[in-house]
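dumping this here before i forget
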Amino acid sequence: MADFPLFIKMDGRKVMVIGGGSVALRKIRILMDYGADIRIISGEVRDELKMLAEAGRLEWQKENLTKKHLSELDEAFLVICASNDETVNVMAANYCQRRHILVDCAKPGENSDFVFPSVVRRGNVVIGISTSGGVPALTRYLREKIEALIPEWYGELEIELCQKRRELKMSGLGQSDRKKYLRQWIAEEEKIREKGREPYENRNEEEPSGHGADGNGGGGH
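structure:
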């Protein structure tokens, strides 16, 4: 069965990473981009992780995980099992699942609650792609296709749309009108940017004054 796509706010959430090798490094890089509070549990780590710890960007607990220390995982919102010792990964994953702590293992399978998707990101615009662990090569292929379709300026466009959305909410317009004006504005902006011109300044000439963007009644993302 396919995995359910779910976007989670990670800012400030405790993530414990067991292991300090290449898999741990790759996943830590991703998590840091989303503000996670990271602690590594490993006797040895990659040089890049040492530097991040020295800079105070993450915490490094300089010991390998043992059975008597499993209770430390209770602090975590999410645990990454990326040890070179598979028995340690299984031990930690089983512990987490008994306590309903989200866990991801280096080798996807029964012990993992989730997988890291392949991501296309343009600012706050985030697209996750997954084949539910089935065919990673297809996931990468789809990511590359989507990257080619979504220019970098969509991140800037999203910021401008947030302001437009706030204005529309205060305008007194009904939901259907807000949706119409917002979609019209997006289409116009796309045409302008795709032609390589700067966004024009006075778009309000074609819109009622004081509005500012939604399209879903203000409850969506």
